[in-house]
């Protein structure tokens, strides 16, 4: 019987893990199934562009994984039972249980209103393709009637990218950005100055040192008493993970992310691995990796090394777990590249302007290309699985069971 590997979620992390496992494991021994709620690959890095009115490719997963042997199941995950080793899914046919031997949990994150009144009823977000398209429709309507006001709440990377993208793509709209502290507080002084200059050039009004405490149909009420008229409010002030992992009994942090060891293996259920936004992984600097595309890449690569190593009785390699910096797009013609030190603090220097924008665009294109070509570099001889793959819950990467096999 083949070893059943089920990957939940086909975002950047899940798609990478599934495709790479298909490259490295023999199809004679392993069956890989990807479960995703929608039939296409969503470029989450570019959803603010989609909302702003640009066309963003969404390749079909069936096409992405064609020829890999990966089975794609379009379904919504409703529960995980790590004791029985099954996942409950719901699809057009009603759904059912999907059994696994190894599970990769990559369900990502969603927008989080953090209990602020009115967010669910009146705000838009760019955390998923459907919500980004709803925002796009609203912005189209505002432009159709001659203009309107847009308020972006949250000055993290998503908020900054969304505000500047909308302001550049839709100059007839008035865009405001609500920042809890100083705009770009985590950037270097030079990068903060560059960001402020770009916001001024694009006409983005920045409201600093306050937060939204109420979202209404046509306005945003801030904690300092400021009231902003808003025909479209975009909430980017927080992200949260689905409670499915916690409900299933996996050990999670207070915010619901799965607690793992250095190899992305669940500390409570050794047959489960977590990657991307769903995982609480500690980086090489001793700090938790932030939710980001970069973290998805590092955690995904580590999970692949661990799964391949353990299933084939080879040594589990450790990959770097680091967060090198932030790359923030400011519309299509400007960006900021801010590197950080080993304590995740901004280094003094930064790159800004068109060169930084071209680099960011290149990274995004490369991420899509890599996802669309999972068989690139397919080895002629893939690894066969060991007769009894290691399932010890807390085995160290260099334990005897995981030493390289002849």
TrEMBL record:
User: Oxidoreductase: is it a keyword of this entry?
Assistant: yes
Q: Name one Pfam family in it.
A: Pyr_redox_2
Q: Which residues form the signal peptide?
A: none
Which keywords appear in this protein's UniProt record, sorted alphabetically? FAD, Flavoprotein, Oxidoreductase
* Cofactors that this protein relies on: FAD
Domain FAD/NAD(P)-binding, first and last residues per copy: 4-284
* Family stated for the protein in its record: Belongs to the NADH dehydrogenase family.
Cross-referenced PANTHER family, in alphabetical order? 64 KDA MITOCHONDRIAL NADH DEHYDROGENASE (EUROFUNG) (PTHR42913:SF3), APOPTOSIS-INDUCING FACTOR 1 (PTHR42913)
The name on file for this protein is FAD-dependent oxidoreductase
Q: What is the lineage of its organism?
A: Bacteria, Bacillati, Actinomycetota, Actinomycetes, Kitasatosporales
